[in-house]
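pinging the channel bc i need a second pair of eyes. not urgent but kinda urgent?? the chain im working w is below, pasted from the shared doc
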Amino acid sequence: MLTPLENPVATMRMTPTKIAVLLPCYNEAATIGQVVADFRQALPTATIFVYDNNSSDQTAANAREAGAEVRHEPRQGKGNVVRRMFADVEADIYVMADGDGTYDAHSAPLLVERLLANQLDMVVGARQDAGETTLYRPGHRLGNRLFSNVVSWLFGYGFADMLSGYRAFSRRFVKTFPAISEGFEIETELNIHALHLRLPCQEIPTRYFARPVGSISKLHTIRDGLRILRTILLLTKEIRPFAFFGVIAVILATTSILLSIPLFITFFHTGLVPRIPTASLCVGMMLMAAISLTCGIILDGMRHIRFEMHRLHYLRHPPPDQRCP
C-alpha cells in the first residue's frame, strides 16, 4: 500500500558503481534543460542520457548545453527509444523519466535507495498530485485506473499507477527485458514483464507536477489507449494462452449450444432439421471451440518452456550491488 511521501529528497545510504539517468524526449526544448539540471543535482554521480526522438525543436541542443549526453533514435515512438536506451547504455542502476518536467527529479535518490535496500528489480514512482485533478486529463486518469485494474485482474497483482514513466531498474531487469512495444504502451509491457517473471518490485509515491508553459503532451487518449489495450491482450495471449484461448472456446461453445437449442426442440417434435444453415453454423462454432481449446493447451506447454528460458537468462545477471560509501 502506498504511504504519503513527506519528503521526496532522500540521502542515499548505498551507492552503486554506476547510475544512468535515461530521458526519452520528443520536442521538449522548453523543459529538458531544467530536467537535466534537476537530475544532476539529485544524482550528482550519475550519467544523464537524453535520447532525442526526431525532435523538430532545440531539444538536443538544450540538453547538451545542460550537460547531458545526447543520443538519437530515428524510429518514432517511446517504445523504440526505450529499446535503444536499454540496449546501448551500460550501468548498474537505471533511472528512467520523461523530459517534460512533470516528474520530481529529487525523488530519484529515494527510488535508487529503495531498489538497493530491498534488492528489487524495479521501483515505480507512483504519481501523487495532491488531489489537483487539473494535472491529469480526465481520460488519462480513468484509463490509468481501468488498465491498472485489468492487469491486476489478469495477472493476480498490479500497480496503482501502471502508466507512470518514472522508474528505477536493476541492470538484470534492463538487460533481460524484450522491449517489443513501439509507443506509449511500453510502460504496460514493463509491468507485465515484471509480473510474468515474478520479479521483486515496489511502488513508492512521488510528486507529480503540471506541464510547464510551452510543453505539450504527446499522448493521444483514444489512440494510445487502444494501443495499450491491444498490448494487454497480446501479452495475455503470450503469457496466459490457456486462459486466453479457453475463454474464446467457452464463448464459441456457449453460443453454439444456445443457437442449437431451438433446432433440437424442432427435431424432437418433427424429426426434421429445417434450418440447415443454422445447424451448420452451430457445428462449425463447436469445432472452432475445440480447436481453440487445443491451441490453448499446446501453447500453455510452450509457455512453460519460454518462462524457464527467460528466468534462466535473468538469473545469469547478478542482483543490484549493495555498497556502503
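so The first helix runs from residue 32 to 42. and The beta strands are 19-25, 47-52, 69-72, 93-96, 122-128, 167-170, 201-207. — does that match what u expected or am i reading it wrong
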